[in-house]
Amino acid sequence: MSKRQGLPVDLTEEQIDEFGREMDAIYYETLESRGEKDRLYILRLIRTQRSMALVGRLVIYASLFLLPAWGHALAGWPSTLIVMALGVILLGLAKILENMEIGHNAMHGQWDWMQDPALDSATYDWDNTCPGREWKHSHNYMHHTYTNIVGMDRDVGYSILRM
Length: 163
Description:
This protein is mostly helical. 58% of the residues lie in helices and 0% in strands.
């Protein structure tokens, strides 16, 4: 085998085949390791995310009772804004969990093995910058096929959305 120019490592065909076997072994080991612990993890995460979103909304609503117009001892703009900010932070964290941990992984098919319709990659959708169908093409295909290639990987060049 001739030395390949520009590559940091020159592997023989046997080394490449061995590397492939090692990657396959990791893949099958991962498939075999999925189970109840993983199922409980994602279900607990979904409950946490939904609880944070609900509590965040309730906290924002409760902050309205701290407006100066109510005239009680705790009423005032500082307390209103602090409580409202807490609610906004909770909503923000819930959204991050939904998009990055639940939705991203569901649309990659990570949870398809559970056969849970709520986490099925074929039907899962979210309220993000684009619908799930479009995200799957731009992320699952374009990004994972052409990672960091300017003009091909859409995760490169979204400016304020993705860097």
